[in-house]
């Protein structure tokens, strides 16, 4: 059911274009089913999420990967808050990513409704490993809507 | 002596409203021709039978003086008694008019007196030194009064007296320089001298005359003769004069700032009467002397005052410029010794005693400070006889008989002490001063006048020159200045502390942000290198592949370094959550983790005693994780590597040691060990960032704990960490 012609829609938000480039390569390698949109800021992400095409059935992201630090962690939480209060994205799984290992960040993210929290990979191989795990879980194992 | 007058005159006490006589000396029959008992209750006219004055003119004059409220203006009122010239002297006291009749010299001396007084004034103005001034005054009084001996007698602080100037007949033995014990002029006498400035005794051998009746009006006591010119003195004083061979005397008070400074003391070796105008002239000279005393003393002080105040100002500037009290007081050409006449100064500050000039040893200074704390709570203390006050101070009396101290902080033992040397003096007493009290036949001590005035020489030790008022005042000023600087300093330090705290927090936040922000591009560097290696391996030769692996390795090292810095900054910021920690389980888990990663090695990690530690779990875990991984790291080449962890509980702390048999530490470089990013030479081949021990030290700092180590290169290294035990709340 989720293997539509347009693939498994994923939204990846990170303010660093290098990260986006690396993730894109890794995605193609380990998660080819993903049809990923990349956004670099909250604003871009919001514009994208409000567009009719995005909201149209079959096109909207079924999984959102979000870096907390955009660049400030409050920016990440602000977007999370937006999603959790949005009728369309209220239930969409959001995986938080951060390079910080501050326990408070983790706790606060879960409190604000993050679906899971992943320490941000620091290398290409780690990214592949991480995205493979995400695919195994969110694409293969979990039933999403 | 109450109720009696000297025999050379007459005294009557009169009610001012109706001029009725209420009391009279028993010799007034010479004036009135009637017995004193009959005189009482009569008007004052009844008194004048044997004089050339009639009642109404006397009353008129008295009335005028009373109306003008200046009874003194009448004095002296001239008359003749039995054809001899005499004066009436009037004063008002205790609700009565007192008329005293006494002889006088010929009319003609009024002009002469005036001339002599004018001359005295000129001489006083011309004399340049204090000695000159005093000698000149003594000479003038002698010329004026004709006494055999005129002395200027000066009181010391303890009220013993000292002859500082003398003018006498040649055949008399000099008294100049002699000292007289304080008991020679008792306190009541000195109090009287401050009120009644001129006292005369005409003839010590003449019986004094009682006043009739003994009691005054309804006062139930004799009339108070404080202001009387005829007042008879106590038999003790008469005896004292007789013992000295003196038959008649006069003394005039010298006042300085309302206090008795000294006396002009006149002695005569036969009976002598000085009349009222002459006495007034002598009194005038005494007042002139008193006034110029004040003037001259002030002038002497003023020059000194100016000098030391200037120096004090310099000291203040030095302290402000140096921002250091000790330096400002002792380390410049102008020092704390320049604001008084001390020969040594000790500055006790911050638990240290610094001295300059001749002083007791620092230990002795500390003893003195202890004594000061027991003796005085004043902010300033001065003495010119420390060895007489403080036990043990005699041993250093040569340098410290005089002591002037200002207190800066009693709690911190902070004082400044100045010292003056001992001045050994010979004091020539007029008789042994220790024997003024004699014991009479009944065995009771009684005050009796001294009989011996033989010169008796005493060596006075343990004393210094006294501290002058200006020295004391300047020391107080210095104290104010120092306290102000200490205050400013404290404020300044508070502000600096606050700035430091803010800077520190900013730095922590900065290093946190920076390390965080560094990680992202770094992981990109690594990622891109990996992408190249992975996606394009076919196109790369071995050399390029090798170089790319080096990039990856370098970025890994940098990542680890950044993680450690983050850690270090977090250890300074994170809140401490202290509790008793089960060290046995913590160390066991750590050992399992380490052993698991070092399976290939022959490693023995031995855990001995594990007393509990009071601390933050995460941080203490970090400490032992660092210590154990270091121990394991630097024993990598040992077969077998042995690491021993042991804990000992002491009274106030728990100490753990972590010993290894690794490469060891060159103790010469021990000082660098805990600095951030410091790595020792023999550790270059071992991976590490140089942050681990800095983190460890920081954590222990936050626990009020300690870390230290000992080592022998290539044999062993032992690190010790100690944690204070929690304070038991009672």
From TrEMBL, chain A:
<feature type="domain" description="Response regulatory">
    <location>
        <begin position="9"/>
        <end position="135"/>
    </location>
</feature>
<dbReference type="InterPro" id="IPR011006">
    <property type="entry name" value="CheY-like_superfamily"/>
</dbReference>
<dbReference type="GO" id="GO:0000160">
    <property type="term" value="P:phosphorelay signal transduction system"/>
</dbReference>
<dbReference type="InterPro" id="IPR052893">
    <property type="entry name" value="TCS_response_regulator"/>
</dbReference>
<dbReference type="Pfam" id="PF00072">
    <property type="entry name" value="Response_reg"/>
</dbReference>
<dbReference type="InterPro" id="IPR001789">
    <property type="entry name" value="Sig_transdc_resp-reg_receiver"/>
</dbReference>
<protein>
    <recommendedName>
        <fullName>Response regulatory domain-containing protein</fullName>
    </recommendedName>
</protein>
<keyword id="KW-0597">Phosphoprotein</keyword>
<feature type="modified residue" description="4-aspartylphosphate">
    <location>
        <position position="67"/>
    </location>
</feature>
UniProtKB/TrEMBL annotation, chain B:
<dbReference type="GO" id="GO:0009584">
    <property type="term" value="P:detection of visible light"/>
</dbReference>
<keyword id="KW-0808">Transferase</keyword>
<feature type="domain" description="Histidine kinase">
    <location>
        <begin position="513"/>
        <end position="727"/>
    </location>
</feature>
<dbReference type="Pfam" id="PF08446">
    <property type="entry name" value="PAS_2"/>
</dbReference>
<dbReference type="GO" id="GO:0006355">
    <property type="term" value="P:regulation of DNA-templated transcription"/>
</dbReference>
<dbReference type="InterPro" id="IPR036890">
    <property type="entry name" value="HATPase_C_sf"/>
</dbReference>
<dbReference type="InterPro" id="IPR050351">
    <property type="entry name" value="BphY/WalK/GraS-like"/>
</dbReference>
<dbReference type="InterPro" id="IPR013654">
    <property type="entry name" value="PAS_2"/>
</dbReference>
<dbReference type="GO" id="GO:0000155">
    <property type="term" value="F:phosphorelay sensor kinase activity"/>
</dbReference>
<dbReference type="InterPro" id="IPR001294">
    <property type="entry name" value="Phytochrome"/>
</dbReference>
<dbReference type="InterPro" id="IPR003594">
    <property type="entry name" value="HATPase_dom"/>
</dbReference>
<keyword id="KW-0675">Receptor</keyword>
<dbReference type="GO" id="GO:0030295">
    <property type="term" value="F:protein kinase activator activity"/>
</dbReference>
<protein>
    <recommendedName>
        <fullName>histidine kinase</fullName>
        <ecNumber>2.7.13.3</ecNumber>
    </recommendedName>
</protein>
<dbReference type="GO" id="GO:0007234">
    <property type="term" value="P:osmosensory signaling via phosphorelay pathway"/>
</dbReference>
<feature type="domain" description="Phytochrome chromophore attachment site">
    <location>
        <begin position="129"/>
        <end position="287"/>
    </location>
</feature>
<dbReference type="InterPro" id="IPR043150">
    <property type="entry name" value="Phytochrome_PHY_sf"/>
</dbReference>
<keyword id="KW-0716">Sensory transduction</keyword>
<dbReference type="GO" id="GO:0000156">
    <property type="term" value="F:phosphorelay response regulator activity"/>
</dbReference>
<keyword id="KW-0597">Phosphoprotein</keyword>
<dbReference type="InterPro" id="IPR035965">
    <property type="entry name" value="PAS-like_dom_sf"/>
</dbReference>
<dbReference type="Pfam" id="PF02518">
    <property type="entry name" value="HATPase_c"/>
</dbReference>
